Amino acid sequence: MPRKTEKCPTCGTTVKKQKHTQQIQNMRMAYSKECLNLIDHAIKEIDQYRNIKFSETDIYGFLSQIKNCDGDMVVMAINNFIKANSPQEGKGLKYLAAIINNNNSSKTAKKRHEFVTMDRIPPKID
Question: Phi/psi at 33 (nearest 5 deg)?
Answer without folding.
Answer: -65, -40
